[in-house]
Amino acid sequence: MNIVTRLAAAAAVAIGIAAPAAAQDWVPRKPVSVVVHTGPGAGSDVFARAVINIIDKEKLAPVRFVVVNKTGGGSTNAINFTTSKDGDDYTLAVYASNWTTDYLVQKDATNSLQGLTPIANLIFEPALIMVRADSPFKSLKDFIDSAKAAPNMRKQAGGTPLGRDAMLRHVLVANTGAQWPLISFPGGGERISALLGGHVDTLVLDGSEIGDFIESGKLRALAQVADKRVESFPADVPTIRESGYDIPIPLQPRGVMGPPNMSKPAAEYYRNLLARLVETPSWKQYVREARLESSFIAAGDLAAFLEKFGDSTKSALKSANIEVVR
Amino acid sequence: MDAIYGLMHGFGVALMPANLMWCFVGCFLGTIIGIIPGLGPSATIAILLPMTFNMDPTGGIIMLAGIYYGAKYGGSTTSILLKMPGEASSVISCLDGYEMARKGRPGPALGIAAISSFIAGTVGVVLLSFLAPPIAAFALSFSSPEYFALMVMGLSLVVLLAGDDVLKTLLALLVGLWLASIGTDLFTAQARFTFGQSALLGGIEFMSLAIGVFAIAEILLSVEAREKVEMLKIPKGLRNLLPSREELKACRFAFFNGSVTGFIIGVLPGAGSTIASFVSYGIEKAVSRHPERFGTGVPEGLAAPEGANNADTGGALLPLLTLGIPGGSSTAILMSALILWGVKPGPLLMTQQPDIFWGLVASMYVGNIALLIMNLPLIGVFTHILRIPLYVLYPIILGVAIVGAYSVSGNMVDVGILVGFGLMGYGMQKLGFPTSPLILGFVLGDAMERALRQSLSMSNGDPTILVARPISAVLFVMAAVILLSPLLRRAFAKRNLAAASAPHS
Question: How far lies B356's CA from each of A171, B9, B19, B220, in Å?
Fold first, then answer.
């Protein structure tokens, strides 16, 4: 009897302590889905898997994270799927710049990035404007002057007209009066082959795509697509602004959102998880090797950032005469 | 010769017990997922990626590559036995492979697929070992006009796939081209023919189309004709499990054609093994002495595409390993695996990390032998599938097809699309429309449209860019020859007939 009461009392105390703790410290109890808009092997998919790999390696979470590839319509199917998971604490999504752009341009896209629960931005991906090593263009100015003198004779390889690389072209064309077409290729491999084969004059390569093309002497960088020089890029390559073009630099942000109405404790848990993630040595090593820039922006700040990002994207699209439907 | 030293070093790496084991594991997994429709190599590699992070990169890439080429061995099994392609690159193998099985030669059909896969797979690796740098340079000389010409040549093969009715063939082809245009347009980022369905934004999944038009339609036709359907008779004995000498002899050119066509198309980024398998089938039919018998179960009609999709592997790895350029989704995920291990695939890989480059290349020789040894005994097991009564087998096929269609995207709309295509395939057969031009149009349509638009934006709208370049001009001439080949053949036949009857008159 005595023991029973004592046990009961102890249990009551334990529950009493545990209950408020559970409300604050939500912890996932089953695998978490991570939605990406690309197929396996492409930008966001690779990024999501790298992040999950670091979470596993550093043992930051008690459950597994599983990548779910929702391709189609750029980011539209992925946003629609995430939105449909309203209130779910076990779904996350990795966004990229096109999660903002597609919504502005596609009539069929009805769900916006802003409708999701902001968790945290993780990186900005800097890029390099590249030419073949034997190209006559030694600087960004050489290329733009040439494109001005012979309109539409210089070519840039890219993907959709809404990608970050294409946005940079739109902004440069609108601000310099030069004119050159963007030739669309579906995959990064095809774009780089077109440049290596000399079928186009230039392209913009994200940090993670650069590999050893510069070291091996196949390609040369004209300018850094970043506000200030990036540590992991060749030190002698100037930024676009340093090259004499004072334009707003289109960003490639990557980060994590939750579905609409994700519970507050869950969202807070994921924010803490990612805040711890970006402090780990594995993350720092990854950021250096993949030539990224770590940029942790959480919650309310992220919402404000995405708002601003949407506005600058809109004006870039308008300057390129691309129809903005919203 | 550098390549020989490299290769010797590579065999030293590949034959280490751990790496040998990873090679077998990869090949075995590849064979299994090749057999399962809907689960492709790129998805499997992505799923297994986290497990390989703590592995040595050499062992890891050997295993993941084993999955990639092993899947192409497995892909033909269900094409042959059930007319249900396991992989996109084995769709065309349904035509003659399934007919061979229906004629009571399922074992030899599986044997020919395995042998052709082995020969072409090995030729692909030999070319990768010894000719990598010059072929990489050749691949880069291919630009959009050349791709367009290549697709036109592929499309001209439709004449050879044609049934008796040219009008019906062209209609089927046009529907295939139209289906390929559904989805988000790359050039404008706008939706085309999606009818407000967001599930269609990503376009139509090729496997839903192929499984619907082939497997589902086949079941519907068989069910309707149930009084006539008899259990397939499977002759017993080893002699009837393996291809006969005549059958192998008929495939001599197909082994060569599959190897070369598959490798060349594999090297080109963005073309892929499905296109390679279609083109090699077309070439095989174009040079055949009895093209009219294609589609009725001729062994060379199976050997050519099955060889091509395996030679494609060596080709596709070439730009990845020598230039750091992934040509398709499977090679893209292999590349991201290398990067996650801290290995940079690129022009310096061969010299800076010879263990990985030559170890992988050597492991593919080993892997192809392992796959042949693994697959030949399995023939006896697989042919037993055909002994299952149809009332048990058909529901299983339907179930597997539906799960396969669902698992590609995780979307029920794709199951609806699969059923829709099943009904369409059934209707087409009933009305005498050939289905292979539809599939061909779908496979080539997207790449062809893209290449045309790229070419025209490169030339600022001047169409002469398409024919003014030497490689594309040659390809156009080949297309013209293929288009005219039935006429030429008839003219020759007439002249021969005239010559033969001349002395008598």
Answer: 42, 11, 11, 49
